[in-house]
Amino acid sequence: MNIEPSTPTVKNPPEQFAGDVWVDMIAVPHESNQRMNVAVVKFAPGARTAWHSHARGQYLRVTRGIARFGDRDGTIIDVHPGQTLYTPPGQDHWHAAAGDTFMEHVAMLENSDDPAATTTWKEHITDDDYTGRTGKDLS
């Protein structure tokens, strides 16, 4: 048993994020048979990810602000603090801070067999992707 060392907050790269987005890792695998990754991710107002997918899916628990999520079929979902969004393996999606406030979520996902293939990053989303016409509100 041990207390994990603190790691510095890292600003996410512009190749994968538009706007300011920071990550604090909470848990990463220590042994070859472990897969779990957990991080707190903070988005400045309007900041967003590029399109991406996860080999084993992902859970995102919103802890602050309103998160906006979209998929390739044009569905947009706004998720509020205390709600958790699940994205299945291989589903292209994006996430962002909705509106004019900061958004924070806890990201939980498992590494793929090849950890470098855990997340597949694609092109940046457009303003039309972000604003969309279709919306579901889970509140």
Automatic annotation (TrEMBL):
<dbReference type="Pfam" id="PF07883">
    <property type="entry name" value="Cupin_2"/>
</dbReference>
<protein>
    <submittedName>
        <fullName>Cupin domain-containing protein</fullName>
    </submittedName>
</protein>
<dbReference type="InterPro" id="IPR011051">
    <property type="entry name" value="RmlC_Cupin_sf"/>
</dbReference>
<dbReference type="InterPro" id="IPR047263">
    <property type="entry name" value="HNL-like_cupin"/>
</dbReference>
<dbReference type="InterPro" id="IPR014710">
    <property type="entry name" value="RmlC-like_jellyroll"/>
</dbReference>
<feature type="domain" description="Cupin type-2">
    <location>
        <begin position="40"/>
        <end position="101"/>
    </location>
</feature>
<dbReference type="InterPro" id="IPR013096">
    <property type="entry name" value="Cupin_2"/>
</dbReference>
